[in-house]
Amino acid sequence: MKRLFKKKRFWVVLGLIVFVYFNNSSLFTNPPAQKPMLLAHRGLGQTFDMTGLTNDTCTAERIHPPEHPYLENTLPSMRAAFAAGADMVELDVHPTKDGQFAVFHDWTLDCRTNATGVTREYTLSELKKLDIGYGYTADGGKTFPFRGKGVGLMPSLDEVLAAFPKQELLIHVKSNDPAEGTQLARRLAALPTDRLSRITVYGGDEPIAALERQLPHLRTMSKASLKKCLLPYMAIGWTGVVPDACKHTQLHVPDYAAPWLWGWPHRFLARMNEAGTRTILVRDGGGFSAGFDTAEDLNHLPENYAGGIWTNRIDRIAPLIQRQTQ
User: Where is the GP-PDE domain (predicted)?
Assistant: First the structure.
């Protein structure tokens, strides 16, 4: 009897292992037909040396020699990104003194512009007078190739929404202030439902939670929402069940961690797509804006990958992806 029990337990365990393997392996699934979704971080902007970066590093002072004339988070840079093949453009927003949202990356104005302080200390019209190309240099301050060329280029969120009425946008709330989430929710609530369906917002836990309370159907993401989705998925995803927290959201997944997700890549992506969730693969954890920016970076993508790709160089990556998927 004891031997029989051991045999049954063996076959149950073996059957479970076989189930888990076949239920999560991508080897026996047909490659997805769609192409990867390309997300252009800050539009098309100047890249910079990431060696030794800290939160206080002024990245405008260490840009690579310019290969194009665009400055991040501007209307020309976003137009160039979409023209190059971006499916979605990411942009950063900050509140202004007069209750609007300026599109600008840094917390302070000191690094890139000819002003000091933070955007919320200025009205939008005052910010429009600044030169956002003032601080860029590729040679340690010997020359400033964009100085004088960035006056008036800091857009408002309203201008971005008007300029790209049908395109996919990813809005980044840079603070952890819940009032900022409420303010953004009021602005976005005025948009038609079909326009809201092409907008995603991510950022600090508190503003995103505040925004979700006002606009529960808007696609959002925060560190808290990532944990609520991925931790339960790691526990039960082997069954094929997708937790409710993973539905209608966006996931930014580091390329080194993605292989640990049940069903990665094709089954995982299919499950998330069915749940109305986008999966964006970021390079090396995405720290300090790391993206898939070179041909070598693309070697880290799974074969026949059809999820999202985060890039700072849409002008380089889109043609490479196009050739790979032809």
Answer: 56-321
Residue range 116-121: average pLDDT? Answer: 95
Q: Which two tokens stand for residue 108?
A: 């302070």
95-107 pLDDT per residue, tens: 999 999 999 999 8
Measure Cα distances from 256 to 192, 260, 261, 282, 289 in Å: 38, 9, 11, 9, 16
Q: Which CATH superfamily is domain 33-174 in?
A: Phosphatidylinositol (PI) phosphodiesterase (3.20.20.190)
CA 145 to chain centre: 28
Q: Is 44 helix (H, G, I), strand (E, B) or coil?
A: coil
Q: How far is CA 48 from CA 57, 63, 73, 122, 309, in A?
A: 11, 4, 15, 28, 19
Q: Summarize the confidence of residues 213-238 as an average pLDDT.
A: 96
Report in angstroms the alpha-carbon separations of 297 from 1, 37, 65, 251, 302: 58, 16, 20, 20, 11
Taking the domains of the chain in order of start, what are their residue ranges?
33-174, 222-326
Pairing of strands 278-282, 168-173: unpaired
Pair of tokens at residue 245: 């927290």
Q: How many CB atoms lie within 10 A of CB 34?
A: 11
Task: Determine which helix (DSSP H) or strand (DSSP E) holds 95, and give its type and residue range.
Answer: strand 88-95
**What is the C-alpha separation between 116 and 110, in angstroms, rounded?**
5
Q: Specify the higher pLDDT residue, 180 or 16.
A: 180
